[in-house]
């Protein structure tokens, strides 16, 4: 594998993998990212692929094994969010212990929960919108 590129196209995500060696060419995987709230991860559904190669045998093999290739890639195109959400929540909590906005104005607070509200495809990848519950205090001194 020489290179992997990822981008958004309308509501689909495109992954281009350039291969060299016994298979020379590009493979494009196209699918729709969907949030699986029960498992707290993004899964790519409706996965399809397209090959770009000049070799007739490689094109034929890709056609013959398309079901197996799609299944294997679908298993690989799962993006768990637990670790990321935990890290973001921890960083927010640490920041809200004492966060001066400007002289005399300080934020403090707690983050009780942080969940994924929705996901959407952008031209550069997948964007995740988060929803947070907690308490925020604004202390203003010197008015």
Helix content: 10-25%
Number of separate strands: 8
Order of helices and strands: EEEEHHEHEEE
> What is the terminal separation in angstroms?
62 Å
Oligomer: single chain
Count of DSSP H/I helices: 3
Radius of gyration: 22 Å
Biggest sheet statistics = 5 strands, antiparallel
- What is the arithmetic mean of pLDDT? 81
- Overall SS class: alpha+beta
Residue runs with pLDDT of under 50 for 5 or more positions: none
Q: How are strands sequenced across the largest beta sheet?
A: 1-2-3-4-5
Number of domains: 2
The fraction of residues in strands falls at over 45%
Shape: elongated
Report on this structure:
Helices cover 24% and strands 56% of the residues. It has helices spanning 56-64, 66-76, 82-95; strands at 3-9, 12-19, 25-36, 41-52, 78-80, 99-102, 105-122, 125-140. The protein has 2 domains: 3-80, no CATH class; 82-140, no CATH class. It starts with a strand and ends with a strand. Strands 1-2-3-4-5 form a 5-stranded antiparallel beta sheet. β3 (25-36) and β4 (41-52) form a beta hairpin. It is elongated, with a radius of gyration of 22 Å. The protein is built from 3 helices and 8 strands; from the N terminus they run ββββααβαβββ. It is of the alpha+beta class and 143 residues long. The model has no long low-confidence stretch (mean pLDDT 81).
């Amino acid at each position: 594998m020489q290179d992997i590129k990822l981008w958004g196209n309308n509501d689909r995500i495109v992954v281009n993998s350039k291969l060299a060696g016994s298979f020379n060419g590009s493979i494009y995987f196209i699918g729709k990212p969907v949030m699986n709230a029960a498992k707290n991860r993004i899964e790519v559904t409706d996965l399809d692929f397209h090959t770009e190669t000049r070799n007739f045998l490689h094109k034929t093999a890709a056609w013959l094994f398309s079901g197996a290739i799609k299944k294997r890639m679908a298993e690989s195109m799962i993006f768990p969010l637990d670790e990321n959400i935990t890290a973001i929540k921890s960083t927010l909590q640490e920041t809200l212990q004492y966060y001066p906005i400007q002289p005399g104005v300080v934020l403090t607070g707690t983050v009780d929960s942080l969940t994924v509200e929705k996901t959407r495809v952008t031209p550069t990848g997948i964007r995740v919108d988060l929803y947070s519950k907690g308490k925020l205090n604004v202390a203003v001194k010197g008015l």
